[in-house]
């Protein structure tokens, strides 16, 4: 009876030091290790501790650990824990996945997924690395200026990313971005690929320019404006748009769906003539909508 009761007890171990944490990662190398970075003051963390306890009952072959963020700051900093709850997944002493936020169903899914998957042989690892590097190269070249950041330009998730976005906007620099929280494989792989351990990272024409500190130095020396592509001025954009096709219709809606009676009538006339034309939906860009009125006058 006592043995049966012991098996039913959830095995979530609390770690209180960096040494204990590293020891757990080393000792549990052959199994899946799930680490919950939490804070007692956060109700959502307490709730996720309960989820962890249930998962521990269901997956006795998996090791579950909880670590108070503020109690072991060096570990939190090492793994870039910026919010709680955050879950890290380890296998073969290597971090293989991450989950940010109190998402019980997603945590359950990831535990099931990683618990059932085996380790890859060395040859498979090499192929995976090649595939990852190819994917990273494509991402870096996705736009002339690419910012890899925590969060999005509209909602940065760390002060460094926020400052970087502000600098780029202040200098009217045209850039695209990638949220590294959206893909843990990209997040970890890019550090190795670029030999740059932190985020944000700014790339121009596929070349790493640097992080926030470097960008601030380039801003101070006025070199930033010569390196990064600029957002075209409104008048230049309007000229490009108006000559995009021989016949260009600026309308409310698009070819498939006109959103006002006048636009619908003009579409019907153009379609009946067989003339080839392109359209631009002015409802999707207020700046173009207003600027075009002034430009045409």
Protein architecture, described:
The structure is a single chain. The protein is an alpha/beta fold and 297 residues long. The chain folds into 3 domains: 2-116, 3-Layer(aba) Sandwich (Glutaredoxin); 123-227, Glutaredoxin (3-Layer(aba) Sandwich); 234-296, Glutaredoxin (3-Layer(aba) Sandwich). It is built from 13 helices and 11 strands. It has helices spanning 2-8, 18-27, 43-58, 73-78, 104-116, 122-140, 159-170, 184-194, 212-220, 224-227, 234-242, 261-273, 286-296; strands at residues 12-15, 33-38, 63-68, 86-91, 94-100, 145-149, 176-179, 201-204, 207-210, 248-251, 278-281. It has a 5-stranded mixed beta sheet with strand order 1-3-2-4-5, with helices on both faces. A 4-stranded mixed beta sheet has the order 7-6-8-9. It has a two-stranded parallel ribbon with strand order 10-11. A hairpin with a 2-residue loop joins strand 8 (201-204) and strand 9 (207-210). Helix 7 packs parallel to helix 9 and helix 11 packs across helix 13 (286-296). The termini are far apart. Residues 1-9 and 119-125 have low confidence and may be disordered. It is found in: Cytoplasm, Cytosol. It comes from Heterocephalus glaber (Naked mole rat). Residues 1-116 form the Thioredoxin domain. Keywords: Cytoplasm, Iron, Iron-sulfur, Metal-binding, Repeat.
């Amino acid at each position: 009876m006592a043995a049966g009761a012991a098996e039913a007890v959830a095995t979530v171990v609390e770690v209180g030091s960096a040494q204990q944490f590293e020891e757990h990662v080393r000792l549990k190398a052959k199994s899946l290790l799930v680490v919950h970075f939490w804070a007692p003051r956060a109700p959502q963390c307490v709730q996720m501790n309960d989820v962890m306890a249930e998962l521990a009952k269901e997956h006795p072959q998996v090791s579950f650990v909880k670590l108070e963020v503020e109690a072991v700051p060096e570990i939190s900093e090492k793994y870039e824990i910026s919010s709680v709850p955050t879950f890290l997944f380890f296998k073969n002493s290597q971090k293989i996945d991450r989950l940010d936020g109190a998402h019980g169903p997603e945590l359950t899914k990831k535990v099931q997924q990683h618990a059932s998957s085996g380790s890859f042989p060395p040859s498979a690892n090499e192929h995976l690395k090649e595939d990852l590097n190819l994917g990273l190269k494509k991402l870096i070249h996705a736009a002339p200026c690419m910012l890899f950041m925590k969060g999005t330009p509209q909602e940065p998730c760390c002060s460094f990313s926020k400052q970087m976005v502000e600098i780029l906007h202040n200098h009217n620099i045209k850039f695209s971005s990638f949220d590294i929280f959206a893909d843990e494989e990209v997040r970890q792989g890019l550090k190795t690929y670029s030999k740059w351990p932190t985020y944000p990272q700014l790339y121009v024409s596929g070349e790493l320019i640097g992080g926030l500190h470097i960008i601030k130095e380039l801003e101070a020396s006025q070199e930033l404006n010569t390196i990064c592509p600029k957002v075209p001025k409104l008048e230049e954009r309007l000229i490009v748009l108006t000559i995009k096709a021989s016949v260009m219709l600026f309308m409310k809606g698009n070819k498939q769906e006109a959103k006002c009676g006048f636009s619908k009538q003009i579409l019907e006339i153009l379609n009946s003539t067989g003339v080839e034309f392109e359209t631009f939906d002015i409802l999707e860009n207020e700046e173009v909508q207003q600027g075009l009125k002034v430009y045409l006058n």
